[in-house]
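User: Can you fold this complex?
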Amino acid sequence: MTKSGKIELMSPAGDFASLQAALDNGADSVYFGVEQLNMRARASINFTMDDLPEIAARCKEKNVRTYLTLNTIIYDHDLSLVKTLLNKSKEAGLSAVIAMDQAVIAYARQIGMEVHISTQVNVTNIETIKFYSLFADTMVMSRELSLNQVKKICRQIEKEEIKGPSGRLVEIEIFGHGALCMAVSGKCYLSLHSHNSSANRGACKQNCRRKYTVIDQESGFEIELDNEYMMSPKDLCTIDFLDQVIDTGVKVLKIEGRGRAPEYVATTTRCYREAIDAIAEGTYTREKVDCWMRRLSTVYNRGFWSGYYLGRKPGEWTDASGSKATQKKIYIGKGKHYFPKTNIAVFLIESFDISVGDKILIQGPTTGSQEMILEEMMVDKKEGAQKAERSDLITFKTGFKVRPSDKLYKIVPA
Amino acid sequence: MVTVTLQRDKCIGCNYCVEFAPEYFAMSKKDGKSVLLRSTERRGFHTMKTNAPGAFEACEKAAKACPVKIITVIET
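Assistant: Here's the predicted assembly.
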């Protein structure tokens, strides 16, 4: 929980651009993987150990807590890396580690690092919470619990005064938004069986997201299904009943999506930030919810449902192979120069075209994810231009610094 | 001659290659990733050549099992 007493909003960071997007849009904490021992093990969406000091520094500046995910199954040959990762995290001043394996939990405690119990542990009852309270201050509930069950657990923690190693009451965390797994919180072996690629080592191949047909082996007839994506749940969204979520006594709300783009992190973080603040101020209205829902559907999603929280019949399946986002981004060009005194940025257009009035997105490792409307621009130093094409140099005013590592995108309806 | 390559920076440390070809692969205790034994490294690719009997079959099994497909085996 945050110092203000509001629920803590935790955002995913798969790279520096997403991390910055989370920081700029009101996250109270961020979680991320370093090297391979986390649920997104593939190298492209992970930080390395050398990135730890910068992650810690950027977050400290904004007073944002930092959580290292180290929540895969651990083998003997991983133990040395586990220790190195935890030592380096402690050295960099990270706030806590999100763990599943007892080896990780034990070593983190040994070096005095705060432990959070991962949803991979599937905590579903108060006795398990008591057990893990010997080691951990925060526990992520299994995603399959209903809000009533979560509420009972939160009440019981207060009643029995179940405290973690810090001496504070154990805090309960739940997932608030993002992809859901068709198996019980990641305990799935489909990908391992089909591709030797273990979901529990962070290498899920997402078989569940594909189309399937069912064939009766005896007759050879194909069974008719309402939906061929029969194992692919829609994404979780709780913004339309966030008041009920907060009312359970949950202290941390996590947004899923370390594998998703910076604009997803920016939009989801911003919407949930506004919703949490609105609830605290007593201004949480239907109109606002509708507006947040519209904004959330502009970024990657498989359609939304309320997960298992409201006790509805499982499950709601998506009818699309990938995202149903109402917008998409098209790569336009890269940052060339920035004039800090006048806030003017120069971009080189490398593909497609761009016109005055377009909604644009500028993303980069330090810039994060910044959205704006292109109100006016100069093309090859000529003022009053309306349209620019490939190989043109365009110049326009931004309210923020632009760097050579930044990319310029145009946002269009999907 | 059998030539085996391993692009080890992409390894996720699943241990399959060691299970199938323990004479040619080992897990590094330092970073938890696979090591191609007796190999030389160039630009992230580790290469090992051998004439040992059974090497092709064992390494081929390791390559097929690798979930991130970073092992190649060529017989010439």
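The two ends of chain A are 37 Å apart (CA to CA). Chain A has a mean pLDDT of 93.
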